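Researcher: We're teaching a course module on how sequence relates to structure. For the next exercise, students receive a sequence and then see the predicted structure as tokens, so they can try to spot secondary structure elements on their own. Here is the exercise chain.
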Amino acid sequence: MGTAKLPAPVDSTTVSQMLWDEANDQLSVSHDFAVADINVYPGQLLEFHSDDVLSTVLALLKSRNSKAAPTTCVNGDGLGIIQFQAYNGTAYNSNAALVATITGAIGATAFPTELALATNDGATGFTTKRLTLSSSGNVSIGTAAISTTATDGFLYITSCAGLPTGVPTTITGRVPLVVDSTNLKLKMYASGAWRDVLPTSASAADIALSLLAPIVNETITAGYSAVVVRRYTIASGTKLTIGSAARFRIL
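Model: And here is the predicted structure for the students to work with:
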């Protein structure tokens, strides 16, 4: 094992050391004042360690101009990318990435930034944004509307075969969802029970009409005079009227 002394970063009483461990094929950097270590296993692992109250931090710094004379970043600047690449026999291609981008004006206390996950679909050779967390906390899937014939790009919701009965773990301000695949219902857990999810803006009449509309009126011609028989009427409120005053006679 070899040891190299590095210049003290704080004062003359602290010592920084870089050590190469031949037995474990490991490069380490340590500081006496923080007892923090960085271990490098070539080609495999970069390991950070701290044994005090401070967290280990991987910081990707960004500014306009130079590090020595930095100027303010601007809207649209990329802040950093953690990229995962695989060798395809000719070159390394990007397979997945974690991407941070500034999405607004930078101020003294304003740092609007989005964080996105990107993956490679195996066809284009490039990564595509799949999931985005905006600076406002909104989560979105994809980057645009998908076609009516799309087979990918969906948000999948957990399902269960029948009415759910378990009591979900509480997360303040959030409501769990599940699809009852047996009864074809979307359920949510709220106010201590599993409940059907219905459009909140729809009236009872709207819901009934959507279910019954295909057979609201029926035209009868075989053996009878041609007449439209009204089976039921859904009023603009919530009233459902069966039949009508109209009658027909047999010829």
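Model: If you want an answer key for the exercise: Residues 38 and 231 are 78 Å apart (CA to CA). Residues 64-141 form one domain.
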